[in-house]
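Cross-check.
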Amino acid sequence: MKIAVIGAGTMGNGIAHTFAQSGYSVNLVDISQDSLDRGMNTISKNLDRMVAKEKISAIEKQETLDAITTYTNLEEGVQHADLVVEAATENVDLKLKIFESLNKATKEDCILATNTSSISITQIAAVTDRSDKVIGMHFMNPVPIMKLVEIIRGYNTSDETTSTIMELSKKLSKAPVEVNDYPGFVANRILMPMINEAIETLYNGVAGVYEIDTVMKLGMAHPMGPLQLADFIGLDVCLSILEVMHDGFKNPKYAPCPLLVNMVRAGKFGVKSGEGFYDYTEHRKAEKVAAMFS
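Predicted model, tokenized:
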């Protein structure tokens, strides 16, 4: 099976890494050569950590890198693909535009998957003429480490497509869970209100950042506090997901906290921008990523 991944950012390069390490030939597609170069550099560094921990050999690292080919032209990158996994920015208009292009550029029997964390699969499928072959494949970050994949069926997604993607996920040594197409699906429908409530707790002056995260880590056995997790996910991504859920459910409980809105407006996105609820120097960012692969 030939795989194409759209987007070389955090999720895209992680998905490409995972497929390639599992023995699949992968085309990694992005409009920016710089993004592709950064993505491949990230994959190489993450593989180096695995070699250092003796989880893979140096030969396996090279085989993984050799299995990935990069493209800046979408049509060239997807024309022979059996499965395309879109992992672009969590923006509905962008995703609809990409899927319109994928519908024209791919083979008729190619499955089109999206790594969206909240946007309707049914809405995305509606811009194609193969809604039975459109499905959600929501990986967790960091993709090479996290086992869960949410498999989201759109209204017209076929049993055959669902079965194919469930089995493929298992071949990646992942644990796929099938869910239906509602805003936020399962993971973010539960997670994002918790993160938002943690931000509200900070906004209302109940406790500080460290105190809130410590209560959830030590009291609820969470491996990472909700504010630290929000920084790791990206505050802009958290805001986008909450906005999708708020719009989809028309329920005020999903309304983003004003503090989150203002932080995103100020360019404080968390780890990727260097500042969120915590301050991240380049050195500390590197340590955090390294710790995820330990």
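The two ends are 30 Å apart (CA to CA). Residues 33-52 form the longest helix (20 residues). Passed to J.P. for a second look.
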